[in-house]
Structures are given as structure tokens and as C-alpha cells.
Amino acid sequence: MKKSLQKTLGGELTLGHWAKSLAVISNNRGKASASIAGLVVFLFGIGLALFVIANPMKVGLFEKISNAIMRKGTGDTAGGRKVKFWRNPMDPAVTSPVFTKDSMGMDYLPVYEDELTGGAAAESGIKIDPATVQNIGVITAPVNRGDLRLEIRTVGNLDYNQKSIYLVNTKYEGWIEKVHVNYVGQEVRKGQPLFDIYSPELVSAQEEYLIALKYRDEMKAREVPGSDADADYLLQASRSRLRYWDISDEQIKRLEDEGELRKTLTVVSPATGVVIEKQDRALDGMKAEAGLNLYKIADLSTLWVYVDLYEYQLPWIKVGQNAKVEISYYPGEVFHGKILFFNPFLDETTRTVRVNLQIPNPDGRLRPQMFATVTLLPVAAKNVVTVPEMAVLHTGERNVVVLDNGGGRFEPRDVKLGLQGEGVYQVLDGLEGGETVVTSAQFLIDSESNLQEVINKMLMATEGEASAAPASATLAPAAPGAQKPAAKDAEHAGHERKSLIDDQKMVDTLGKTIEAYLPIWKALANDSTSGIKENAATLADLAGKAVGQAKEDALKSQLKALKKAASEMKTGDLNSARESMKGVSRVLISVFTSHEVKLPKRYLIIECTMVHEKWIQDTEEIRNPFLGSQMPTCGTKVGEIG
């Protein structure tokens, strides 16, 4: 009986086995104790079942019994789905034909037949339970077809509209006797008096006009044939002479009505605007030479904005395109302008072209020499397929999106990308308009897809179908219960290789990113924020240019992060600028420490243990941008660039 019990415990133990064994014992003792034995069997069976399930002593024998009672083995069904085998929750390459636990006590997970090759889910990628889809926060977006706009952000400064600047001078010599507008910055209206001037030439011209006027009246009174025409001609010649000297029609009319000479005449403003220049602070009694510019008046109803664009951005920019202008003095407000013209030459130092925009300023709030952030959104490609940036998974040489096929079915798909626009990518191959892609949690879905692909390949190897596996598979054939695959993908073995960037244009651009970074470092080291905004914008533009020149996806990702960190750098106060500087420094250092770049100049990487941050500088003398004057020399050299 002992051997029979041990044999039963070593295999599948049921309450029926115990009942049968105890019934044999009760028969040997006689029929008189049958009723007692039946009661004992019932109570003992109930107690043993509860003890096995609870297993308070953690005995291995009872654990086997518990597994036999609570779990199903291979071939059993769960909720109508057939379990094929069990896999290790931490390593999907390790499987078992029956339920078990790993070395950490974690339960193996069931793998169902409908999840494997030939199942309904495998035909269209993977299938995920709707509750799981909701729990991992899956968000989708449509694949659109339309025009792709590039986002070009740059900085500019406001200036006077050169077409609306007026100079005030005289065409005759004279002396200024009274000044009506006598300081720079004063607003004037068109026709408003500026100053009174005495000129012998003006007096003579007035006298000639009055004589001509009197002569015409006399000729009309005499009614001599042809004489009135001559008189009118003489009068018109005298009036034209006054007009040529900028005497207004109103002043000429007043001279006619009064019939008396005026010693001085008043010079008025030719336009509405602001006085931006004045010949002298005290014009009273000043002699005015003919042609001398006494005032410069600017009409500020429109302003010009000067921006510099890199040569690689010029193909997308056209005259007449709209631009969005933001002024830091008016946060949250957006002003709109248009491109007027390009400068005909390229700055050989910065490799940029100056572009002029015009923006309206009807209320006069905008002032020349203000700084502005200018955003251009030119159309780079028409009628193309686009997906959101968040939908693309960059995996080395591949770019992957996850399609939502509906009903909880998802399909990872390789795509070929083109231009990067305003929050979207152009898709050259792999997608068509009208499909739906995942923009959030797609990494988890892609991981699940790869996991099921691994399981499928393992199962095919078990069934002798290894030849059906893709030629690129790197997993060693393994049956359920086999060990971890010995082969590893050589691309991910060991540390990541440093790549030597030998494209001279790329090297030049990366060198300029450091040169744009250094003024930010120097300003913060001097407890200042002067020029940080402009240099951060330049750094962001250079990073964007480098993205277009980079060939490796890893480097492109780093440069995009650098562009984002630089463009979002805060410059409102010293503390926020220093906090933003940390992110810029981390990404910039990462670019040069993960890729070998031969620069003509040597730069130092310094680390300060007080703030646990690093930065780049070009001098041996340590100057801490995060602590400034508090601890200017806190830092130690930890590396070099160049």
C-alpha cells in the first residue's frame, strides 16, 4: 500500500485514489466498521485537499499535488483556447511543456495555439485583448495624404520700413525763425507745421505771384483781346514756382486771399509718423542750406523684419509667403507678415541669406530693434502620404509603424521615410492614405509582435519546419523546454561602436554647433542671459541643418533632441536659463562622445560634482555656467572633443 501511495503521489493524485485505498483497509477490518471508515475517508479527503491547496509548510511534494489540482497541462483548454506550451515570463526563449515556475518563483505564462503560426491572429500581425489595449493606453491617428509643410524657425529683428522714411529739407537757402517740432521721437501728422523759415527767395517769389495776380485782374477789367490769356500764363508760372519750392496750395490760397507778403513760410510734415532724426536740438535762428536734411520722419504703420536663412532652406522659401512672427514682449500673441524680397548675396561667413519680411503695425505697439521669433511653414511636397512623428519607431536602419487593423488586431510594418515636416513624416513606401497607425504604446505592441514571432519560429523548429523561417532569423532552433539560444545578433553584441564622421560638410556643421553653444556657456558663467536667446536659436537651426546631413538614424535622433532642447531653451531669468542649459549640454556632449568627429579645434568636457552636470568649453580655465560667480572654478576635466 505504501508503494501504491508513493506511486500515486508521484503522478496525478485524486480524491478517488485515496478513497479506494482506504476502502481496502476498511474491508479487512470487517463490515462492522464500514460506516466509521466511510466517515473517516470523507473527512480525511476534505482535509487533505484543503491542506494541499494551502500548503502552509511549502513542502515540494504538496506543491506537485497543488499544481496537478490547480493548473492544466499542455493540451488542456482555458476559456475555449487550447494551451500549446508555457513560456518563461522573463525570457520567452525558455519554454516548458507543462506549467512550472522560474527560479524567482514566477508562474510560466500560457501560449495558446491561436497565437501561433497559422492562427487567425497571425494572419494580420497580432491580436491584443481589448482590455489590454485600453490599459496600455493605445492612441491611434489616420494616415493622411496631402501637402507636407516644413517648419523653419529662426530669429529676426524689427526695423523701419525703408519705403516709408521721409526726409525734410528745403530747396532754397533761409533762416529758421520758429520751431514747432523740436525733439526726436515726437509723433507728427501729415501737414503738421514743423518750422517757420525766412528766405529772401521766398519773399521774391511771393511778390512775383501777387504782381502776376494783380496784372491778371487788370487785364480782365480792360477786356483787351488776348491779354487775359497772357496774364493767366504769367500767373500760372508764378504759382508753379512756389509749388516747386514745396509751398502748399493752402498757403498759396491764403496768399491770394490776404494779398500781403509774409516774411516767413511754414514747412509742414510730408507724412504721418515719428521723428527719428533731427539736424540740431536748437533750430531757432539756424541757417538752413538748400538740400540740408533737417528732419527724418518714419511711418511706423508697417515694419520690416530681417531674418537669416541657411542656404539649404532657400529652395522652400518664395516671395509672398506668409510668416508667423512672435515677440517676447507680447507673449501669446502672433503677428503675421509676408516675405518681401531676398538679399542678392550670401554671407560667406555664416552661409546665410538675409530675407526681408513686412508686418503691419496699426496700433504702433511694435518698435524697431525688437527681437522676434519667425516661423515659416512652406509647402515642401504636394499630395504625399504623411504619418505623425510619434507613430514612427526608429530601430537602427529600420523605421517601423504599427497599423491598427481593427478588432484588436495590430500589424507592425516597415516604412521608408522622406522629409520631416511640421510634426509629421513623409512616407515614400509602405503606407497608403486612409490607414490607421498607433501613435502611443506602439513600442509595447511591436515588442509583443516580436515576442510572438520568436515563439512561432521556435514552434516551427520543433515541428521540423525551420526551413520556413526567414533567412534573417538569428535564433537557434529550440523545442519547447529547450535552453536559451546561444547565438546573438552581432549588431547588438558588446558596446556600441563609435562611428567616424568624415563628411566635411557634416563636420563643419557640428563644429558650428559648439561655436553657437560657447556664447551661452560664457554668458551663464558671467551670471548673464545676454545673447542666449539668439545663440540658442542659432544652435537649434544648426542642429536642424545637421539632421538633414546625418546618415545614421542614431545620430539623427540625437540631433533632433539637440534641436528641440535648444529651441525650447528658456531665457526669462538666470535660473531657468541654467536649468535649460543642462538639457542642451547633455545632448550636445552625447553627440560628440558617441560619434568620433575630427574638429580643427580642441574643446574640453568639464564636470561639476556639486551640480552633477557637464558642459563644453574652449579654455583651460574652468568657468562654471551652472554656479557662476558663486563657485566659478568648480569642475574637473573629464574628456575632450576634437
Please tag this protein with its features.
single chain; 642 residues; alpha+beta; four-stranded antiparallel β-sheet; 13 helices; 33 strands; elongated
Provide a brief overview of the structure.
The protein has 13 helices and 33 strands.
Could you please describe the fold and organization of this structure?
By secondary structure, the chain is α+β, with helices and mostly antiparallel strands. It is about 35% helix and about 25% strand. The protein is built from 13 helices and 33 strands. The strands form nine sheets. A six-stranded antiparallel beta barrel has the order 8-17-20-19-18-21. Strands 1, 2, 3 and 4 form a four-stranded antiparallel beta sheet that branches. The protein has a four-stranded antiparallel beta sheet with strand order 5-25-24-23. Strand 1 (about 75-80) and strand 2 (about 80-85) form a beta hairpin. It starts with a helix and ends with a strand.
The number of helical segments is 13
Could you give the order of strands across the largest sheet? 8-17-20-19-18-21
According to DSSP, the number of beta strands is 33
Alpha carbon gyration radius = 44 Å
**Cα distance spanning the termini:** 84 Å
Fraction in helix: 25-40%
Largest sheet, in brief, is: 6 strands, antiparallel, barrel
Unreliable parts: 1-32, 57-74, 117-124, 461-497
Secondary-structure class = alpha+beta
Global geometry:
elongated
Which range does the strand content fall in?
25-35%
Mean pLDDT comes to 77
